[in-house]
Specification:
It is elongated and about 65 Å long. The strands form four sheets. It has a six-stranded mixed β-sheet with strand order 3-7-8-6-4-5. A five-stranded mixed β-sheet has the order 9-11-12-13-14. It has a four-stranded antiparallel β-sheet with strand order 10-17-16-15, with no helix packed on it. It starts with 14 loop residues before the first helix and ends with a strand. The chain has nine helices and 17 strands. It has two domains: 240 residues, no CATH class; 158 residues. With 491 residues, the protein is of the alpha/beta class. A hairpin with a 2-residue loop joins strand 11 and strand 12. The structure holds zinc ion (ZN).
Length: 491
């Protein structure tokens, strides 16, 4: 059921709101064929909800059996002290199978209809104008709305294993029909959307060799009267468009304002890599949209304080080496050292400060860690990033250290984050849920997209038993390099 669109021009368009926007606006919501986005603006303790949507088309027929995910046949992490055997492959115990769920969190195989970001990928930005409006911006200005920020996010998130190479076209390419002719909107009619894509591809094909690109962004003139910023989404095509001998399977259709919402393109690009939406769609469209993961993953909210991708996602995408995931098998006690998720080569506590407009320099953070700012305090990025406890055929618990480094530089509360993973859950239906180690308190109320989960991590010195599971985590200390020493006790 479509959510009602609130009035436009809310506080986020004002100067003050724009300053707040990177940390104060909450994003996304849901999926059916299209995914809607709820954005709530918190200004001076008030909440205003603006609703728009991103969207993801879905294409069940593209879900095939992929190649065996060979990199998952890993051996136990060297930082484990008390696992039964270091020679047992991790994959047998902790790898969830990929199911038919749209964007399944299962990782035993890679869905080959999606590009895997383990190599450099080339993305073309095609700028579309319309005969009913003279653009007020230049293609170069719109390109700089999204790049290099989007590429930088992925560079940090992947520890340099993935490079997104943007190729913005220098020119406007004019569509054959007025912007108002396509009825662009959040509940975009399928036929109208198809007409838009067909026209855009036809107009662009003469100038662009699509065979050179892995990802296609169609960026519409934000000032054309028919362009609706609620319509940004990924469209997965039932029948790939053929151009230049290439099958174009999906297109990111961008209808953002100028300037756009922060990291919106990175979120959409996550879908291009088969990552699901992690926000929660309330049944009546009016509840909170961020109850599942709060600030803790870009696919939950592009405005999160700690938007680095979960370690589980990094494992899925191929960004964690085999020794960086510890499969904890019980019963018994396992001691391990977890390096902060955001720490990587070149990452520093101040690396992302420029996005947020506050807390420049990466010092003075809340949290309990006490580690000095700077890359050296967080390790080189090659350590163990994720611990997993299998809890069922299609479920597992993830444990990872979230510190103020890399993409997480603005994190509210540091510590060991615990979350549940469900391989059979659909995108938008809670495939990952953060477990709140402090369910009675909130934090960072004016900045977090969901304050109840902003203090979710298990802090230094604390012990936390995961509700409903016979699993306990004890956060013992920090190493000289800033990593976290942890005990995980299972049944
Ligand atoms: Zn989405």
């Amino acid at each position: 059921m479509p959510r009602p669109l609130p009035r436009k021009g809310s506080a986020r368009r004002t100067g003050r709101a724009r300053r707040l926007l990177p940390r104060a606006v909450r994003i996304p919501a849901t999926a059916s064929e299209a995914v809607r986005t709820a954005r709530t603006v918190r200004v001076r303790g008030r909440t205003r909800r603006a609703v728009r949507r991103l969207a993801d088309g879905r294409l069940p027929s593209l879900r095939g059996t992929g190649a065996v995910f060979t990199s998952l046949t890993a051996v136990a992490a060297t930082s484990l002290v008390a696992v039964p055997s270091v020679a047992v492959p991790l994959s047998a115990a902790c790898v969830l199978r990929r199911t038919d769920a749209h964007h399944s969190e299962g990782i035993d195989t890679w869905n080959r209809s999606y590009p895997r970001p383990t190599r450099a990928l080339d993305a073309v930005l095609v700028f579309l104008s319309f005969p009913d409006a003279a653009p007020l911006t230049t293609p170069a200005e719109l390109a700089s709305d999204h790049f290099p920020a989007t590429s930088s996010f992925f560079e940090r998130a992947s520890y340099g294993r993935f490079t997104l190479r943007a190729h913005p076209r220098p020119e406007w390419i004019e569509m054959p029909r007025p912007s108002t002719a396509y009825a662009i909107e959040r509940d975009w009619d399928t036929a109208q959307r198809a007409a838009y894509l067909r026209d855009a591809m036809a107009a662009a094909d003469a100038r662009i060799d699509f065979s050179r690109y892995d990802i296609v962004y169609f960026v519409a003139d934000p000032d054309a009267p028919g362009v609706d910023s609620d319509a940004t989404k990924v469209v997965n095509l039932d029948r790939p468009l053929r151009a230049d001998g290439t099958a174009v399977r999906r297109i990111v259709t961008v209808f953002e304002k100028h300037p756009p919402d922060r990291l919106v393109l990175a979120h959409e690009t996550g879908h291009v890599f088969d990552l699901p939406d992690l926000y929660h769609r309330p049944a009546d469209g009016r509840g909170d949209w961020d109850t599942h993961v709060g600030d803790w993953d870009l696919m939950g909210s592009q405005f999160g304080l700690a938007p680095d991708l979960f370690g589980w996602h990094k494992w899925k995408l191929g960004w964690l080496g085999s020794r960086q995931v510890a499969c904890v098998r019980g019963p018994g006690t396992t001691r391990l050292t977890l390096e902060s998720l955001g720490a990587g080569a070149g990452a520093s506590a101040g690396a992302g400060a420029g996005w947020h407009g506050r807390r420049d320099g990466g010092t003075g953070w809340g949290g309990d860690g006490g580690a000095a700012a700077g890359a050296e305090a967080f390790g080189p990025g090659g350590g163990t990033k994720l611990a997993v406890v299998r809890t069922g055929r299609d479920s597992a618990l993830g444990f990872e250290a979230r510190g103020a480094v890399g993409n997480d530089v603005s994190v509210c509360a540091q510590g060991i984050l615990v979350y549940r993973i469900r391989g059979e859950a659909e995108s938008g239906e809670g495939p990952i849920e953060v477990v709140d180690a402090h369910p009675r308190t909130e934090a960072c109320w004016e900045e977090s997209v969901y304050p109840p989960l902003a203090d979710a991590p298990v802090a230094l010195g604390e012990t936390f038993t995961v509700p409903g599971e016979d699993v306990r985590v004890e956060v013992e200390g920090r190493t000289a390099s800033g990593a976290w020493t942890v005990r995980i006790v299972t049944g």
